[in-house]
Amino acid sequence: MSHKIALNFEDGVTRFIDAKVGETVADAAYRQGINIPLDCRDGACGACKCFAEGGQYDLGDDYIEDALSEAEAEQGYVLTCQMRAESDCVIRVPASSEVCKTQQASFEAAISSVRQLSDSTISLSIKGEALNQLAFLPGQYVNLRVPGSEQTRAYSFSSLPKDGEVSFLIRNVPGGLMSSFLTNLAKAGDSMTLAGPLGSFYLREIKRPLLLLAGGTGLAPFTAMLEKIAEQGSAHPLHLIYGVTNDFDLVEMDKLEALAARIPNFSYSACVANPESSYPHKGYVTQHIEPKHLNDGEVDIYLCGPPPMVEAVSQFIREQGIAPANFYYEKFAASA
């Protein structure tokens, strides 16, 4: 038996390792070629101090106060030379992947389907034997290389891996390099290369109600997160508000409905900013955030959308005089 440990480095790279029962995280990392900063191995120097963002573990009793104080341990800090995982864990490493002598993983796969969901949104699925080895935290992204070029574009996973297949929601940018390939040239079987996973925007352990805010194709990481929540369940309520510009930008509504059927305490709503919209809920996402969603600050907020939306939501929350327990966000902008 072993536990999967996600190591998140400060440059955004994430690598996964397997830790055997009773094996320290530092030893597991070294066994798999990743050099977490380390000096004494005895819990005396603090050089391997990291932050555990999720999971259960045993810190042991063989470290000293100077290396890890009681207050730090209560906050979630760990010494990887002493920490032994008791479940899958997520650990933030205060060093770059380069310093730790690791790098982004690269995978080869093939297009399994390309679907034009609307004038503005493309669904891309890729599949390959190599993707059976792919692991990521729901919400993270990879760099996809545009076939026929050396350029890459960053896209969040919109699904969890299943049978070596993953999916993405891609904004159809007129004249965009990836958009042009997908709309004019792509066909099933075409080879694609992806590198990652990357990013600090991912689902943490659910300890309180969640408010999920998506703008346009910023819906992608949330469908992956919700698939994970559907698998593991949640004791806390979750609400998603999905905002778009025009009626035709609303996509994957059937997927959201299916997820709502699988997750008992999940609800969602959508809104369209165009005042000429025929959709019943108009306006911006901020106009549909209710006091109950903010829960007097006892809420974790996840936000993914274009920069103006991120700024508008941040300003709205400040104006409410409420400080959420956690506010995770990711800005994205289309590349031509």
Task: Provide a compact summary of the structure.
The chain is an alpha/beta fold. It has helices at 25-31, 70-75, 177-184, 220-232, 253-262, 291-294, 307-319; strands at residues 2-9, 14-20, 49-54, 57-58, 77-79, 84-85, 89-93, 105-116, 121-127, 141-145, 152-156, 165-171, 191-198, 210-215, 238-244, 266-272, 300-305, 326-331.
Portion in strands: 25-35%
Q: From the alpha-carbon coordinates, what is the Rg to the nearest angstrom? A: 21 Å
Sheet with most strands: strand arrangement: 11-10-13-8-9-12
Uncertain runs are: none
CATH topology of the largest domain: Rossmann fold
The largest pleated sheet is described as: 6 strands, antiparallel
Count of all domains: 3
Structural class by sheet pairing and helices: alpha/beta
Order of helices and strands: EEHEEHEEEEEEEEHEEHEHEHEHE
- Total number of helical segments? 7
CATH class bucket of the largest domain:
Alpha Beta
What's the CATH architecture name of the largest domain? 3-Layer(aba) Sandwich
Mean pLDDT across every amino acid position: 92
What does the overall shape look like?
globular
Residue share in helices? 10-25%
Which homologous superfamily in CATH is the superfamily of the largest domain? Nucleotide-binding domain of ferredoxin-NADP reductase (FNR) module
CA-to-CA gap between the ends?
A: 47 Å
| Number of strand segments | 18
